[in-house]
Amino acid sequence: MEYKQIGKNFTPPDMVAKVTGAAKYAEDFRPEGLLRAKLLLSPFPHARVRNIDMSAAMKIKGVVAIITANDVPQFPPPQDPILYKEAMFRGAPIAAVAAESEEIAAAAIEAIKVDFEQLKHVMDPLDSLYPGGQNAFTGGNVANVRLPLQTIRWTAKDFAGFDQGKMPMGKPAEEWSFGDLDAGFKKAKVIVERPFLTAGNSHHSMEPRTNMAYWQNGKCYLHGSMQSQAFPLPGIARQIGVKPSQVVFIAEYCGGGFGSKGSGYSEVVISAHLSKKAGGRPVQVRVSREEEYYIGKGRAGFQGWAKIGFAENGRVTAADVYCVQDNGPNRGFWDFRNCGHAVQVILQPETMRFRGMAVLTNTPPRGPQRGPGENQAAMALEPYLDEAAAKLNIDRVAIRKVNAMDNNGKDGHKNDKPITSAYMKEALDKGAKMFNWEAKKKLSGKRVGNKLHGIGVGQAFHGAGSAGFDGLIRITPDGKLHVHQGVGNLGTYSYAATARAASEVLGVPWENVVVIRGRTDRHLPWMIGQFGSNTAYTATRSNYVAAMDAKAKLQEIAASVHGGKAADYDLKDGKIVSKDGSKSMSFGDAAKKAVEMGGKFSGKELPKNINPMTRAAATAVAGTGLMGVAKDTLKKRGMVPGLCAGFCHVEVDAETGSVAIKEYVGVTDCGTILHPLGLQSQMHGGAMMGFGMALSERIVYDHALGLPANVSFNQAKPPTYLELPEKFEWAAAEMPDRDNPVGVKGMGEPVQGAAASALISAIEDALGGHHFAKTPIVTDMIVNALAKQKQSYRPLQANTM
Amino acid sequence: MMIKDVIPGFELFRPKTVDEAVKLLGAHKKDAWKLAGGNDSLSWMKDRVKRPKQVIDLSGVAGLAGIKETADGIEIGAMTTLTDIENNAAVKKSYRLLADAAGHVASPQIRNTGTLGGNINQDARCWYYRSGLPCYRAGGTTCFADTPEGQNREHAIFDAARCVAVTPSDVAPVLVALDAVMVVKGPGGERTVKAEDYFIGPKTDITRMTQVKPEELLVAVRIPKTFAGANFYFEKVADRKSWDFALVNVASAIKVDGGKVSDARIVVGGVACTPRRAVAAEGAIKGSVINADAAKLAGQSTSRGARPLNYNHFKVPLMANLVTRAVRDAKA
What we know:
By secondary structure, chain A is of the alpha+beta class.
């Protein structure tokens, strides 16, 4: 289909502010009378607060307010506390002080006397599951979203062989299966079975989660760093202890969240509580880089095991997967479930069993990080395909293609649910061609001078679209189209790109489009958060249905003014024109008419099925023009698979273990391309993040002390500009999704997992098919493998070097 | 209670001359903090782990920055930035090894502000020590890194003595390889120390990494002509190509006369508390022709005496391979 705006580059409205530095992030707002706040952090990995003596701190001149857990709403565990009574990780915020300056606040923190009762800590999920093991939280050791806090211990028998590297697999918290697994394995020609370990890693968002709040006339105005806009509001209000209508949440720009700022995270409301106690004076909680490593969330690590059976042609006949998730101390995110889901989508096994659980540890709180679970699964399980391909003597791309999901793909725990569209084969074919796989694979494991060449392929998946949210647009008498966007501004420009679904439908040129966003008092419709690779899919749908609603109203107005039926009119070149071309009306005139006519035309009457937040927003702007407002009830037959294939060529230095990425090609199955430049930055940025996850980033603790080693950019080692591949290319399968009105799917998350797994595949290929079964693959692991000496770490040990 | 932010207050001095600076150091001794480029200093202070009472800012001291050619080589002021060293024509002409190493320190931003003195005098990077734990080096009674659970991948494989921290500098091994002389001024006047002796291990003094006493100041580094224009090799192996400390680095300066090695220095960083001369390797190649076998022998000779900790035995083959390369691939 020929589009005028979809698939074309454009300048997003906030671009200039970003590149000139004019853009104001949460930390840049400093109203008159601003108080500065600092956090008191737990020095212990696990301790109960017996008493807090603030008397000396309160006497310091310039100290205005101190809050502790007693001043903020309490939520049942495992939900993340705002301030902790039982500190479950080093760096847990216990109290916060607002003062006339940061220096005073810092001095006050040091003057507060906290009486801690130190408790035993546990840094490794398997240690907690061991008979007699320690709970990271006094209430239990297993919990997650929709997994109630409970205690699970395995038996000594479950741990038999553990010291020799065998994955213990006691009672799981969750289990599902389909098909006859035993029969599937009997059918297999080759079975690959072994444990795997993936390290957790920090989000290290460039913008720390600094927040600033003040109260005015009973309303709390909160500036926070957030990926999403409308979606976090109810959660933020609940954590402040007021109604959503009493909060104005301002988040125009977000300097990176990667999942850690998708919904109303607990720390964002600390300034609101301090401000309340300070009589409404503005308070800024500036979060430092080191604090960001404590409270800024991290990806969950996995300890797991998989047994996968392959038929002679490489088809997966059976997959049996066990995944223990290191959940940190709180609610975390359902990475372990996504691990099972990713195996099912990527391998489309004939039979499958998944078992898993999330175990609490006294490590930093975890949250979703780009492809949470699916990308760990990609790193852990793509090597099984390489191993099977070698044993079956078939090509590594071919074994992926024979299992690749297509439009007949199946989803769901019973393997019976349809999907909207999947073109993994096409992505693999396109990538193999661009990468010149057939020619390059001759380099496999070849040594040239000191360099070992490796060629790798990887794939990843993430669900990439939702439905059922609302669109709200207005055409004003000046002829402009206002798109009210409830999505956030994570940094992908999708808030602007998805607005173009509306302008495309209505034929309004982009320069006449105003995107309204950034503050909840700008009357924004209800919309899912900007996470889970869903915005491109979900928000194009909601803006599309709002535009279709407006289109119908424009046609009706033209018919009412110029006679005939609505169906006699079309939209053309920014006008409503009769099909015979004899009559036309401008959008501006139609908007004026809509205001006169009132009712549904101007938003005075609203559809019954829209969300209360949308209703409130629409009501506030009713009568200002022609309103298009609708809930997305378009067909969506099932899950939306966002898929990506990656191809990588590395040189591994045979003497130093250093890895240089010579080439990377990523091909995304993202449906119709929505915004080429935005897509390119996702393909590049996502891949770089994948390289870091595969090669250098990890959470490391001294288990005896409960002390984290990597609490700075320098220590946590995200990749730098010099880690860029020498040749860095991308493409899209460019096959429209069947259930999105403009053919678009999301793509942001799997591009990381595909890059990470392709890099791992390439490194292991360079080393002659040596499978590390542990990520990241850091320099010392490669040096040890090259020197044929044993690795330093103990098998399956989490959160160590 | 724990707060890891906001630099605590201190008294700031901004001397204009070396004499003024030395006088201030003499007056305040251990309470004074020498501030050069600020990269190491400010992270200590922002973490509130080190809390100097007085800070002596050296950025305004006349004559501490700059590179000049002398009768016997070059002299580099201690406040010369790493970027200036990396780009200096005289350095590049005769001591490319030093330019190479300076160019591998941290990141361009840090090299623009980081100084020669700051780089070679920076404190141990042991993450336990930096966390503010009361370890031996911090005046306490234990080492947290060398325990059954200690995460000591980056730590020493040689010469541990209570402390297992390593020299973190990329430039220091080069100064030892080039047989540099360090010019130190104190209340008692000026003294010179050979680079090889300048860096000290925990056996000598566990609270310092160099011979410079609290009341003294490194003012310049003199590089003699001994190895000017020799065959050089520098390499740093780290987890990232930028903004990372060496897991192991190596510097070699090899003079060849009539096809045979007449003099050689090979120095390894990241394996001990001080830059470590690979003396056996130097001896192995002296008087011989450089070929693959000689290089391999040099590499193999380095590991004797290595005592790896739980997580760092990879440094043994890595060091051997780097020394092999430092012999095999050294170029004029």
